[in-house]
């Protein structure tokens, strides 16, 4: 298997751990607060690399960071109203959004990738979908999926012009600054800012994990992996996120999926294999000719 695919699978595995963590943290902090604090931690980690970046890297990092930040904040806000499973399902709709947005931006649709994306979404639906809904939670999470689909496309188009570490650093620092300003603006009135340290104290271990591991380290590895993987194919790989989330829920929280959940998870794994097999076959055919 392509090493870049393995890197993105590892990134997705780590992301799968964040849904229950953010869900638990949202009992103490708002979505904006969680996002601002996690990227403050991540920004401190990546600042030495960002200071060495070129003006072009800062330009692209600011663009990518802004789009990614919208996705992260929207997801955190949504998790205040809906379950982590439901959030994982709606977020995974970016798997279908990426190829169609790519088409609108001048790309071409691959039948193999569209089929794999549809299979992945069906599998995630079997795993995660619940009856009923919440307008605010579902709407925010759908916005998260759309913003993330745009981010995946932009990253695939901009990553080749920069060093992966530098581009990851600039976007993370940009996200830290923007989310910090966002936090201050939304906390101008009331005592939310004054009570923030006390409310954050019980969840600092979770915030450190979200900042150092799930944000700084994984955004760097994502940039490394997507250097050699198309946006459409990466989106299918990212569909493994709720599968890993369900796995960690089973290991940590002793949650069960049932037959429907296992069938859905198997469909997502099959979708990832389908996407990789088709691309590998095409690459080999090209080598022979």
Q: Could you walk me through the main structural features you see in this protein, from its secondary elements to its overall organization?
A:
By secondary structure, the chain is mainly α. It has one domain (3-288). It has helices spanning 3-16, 18-25, 31-50, 55-78, 84-91, 94-104, 111-128, 135-158, 164-186, 192-200, 204-226, 231-238, 241-253, 258-288. It starts with a helix and ends with a helix. Residues 278-289 have low confidence and may be disordered.
Describe the structure in brief.
Helices cover 81% and strands 0% of the residues. It is mainly alpha-helical.
Largest sheet: none
- Low-pLDDT windows of residues: 278-289
Strand content: under 5%
Tell me the number of helical segments per DSSP (H or I, 4 or more residues long): 14
Order of helices and strands: HHHHHHHHHHHHHH
Radius of gyration: 19 Å
Shape summary: globular
N-to-C terminal Cα separation, in Å? 21 Å
Helix content: over 70%
- Derived structural class: mainly alpha
Please state the average pLDDT score: 81
Number of strands: 0
Number of domains: 1
Which features does this protein show?
289 residues, mainly alpha, disordered C terminus
Q: What is the topological layout?
A:
Layout: H1 3-16, H2 18-25, H3 31-50, H4 55-78, H5 84-91, H6 94-104, H7 111-128, H8 135-158, H9 164-186, H10 192-200, H11 204-226, H12 231-238, H13 241-253, H14 258-288
Helix pairs in contact: 1-11, 1-13, 2-11, 3-4, 3-9, 3-11, 4-8, 4-9, 5-7, 5-8, 6-8, 6-12, 7-12, 7-14, 8-12, 9-11
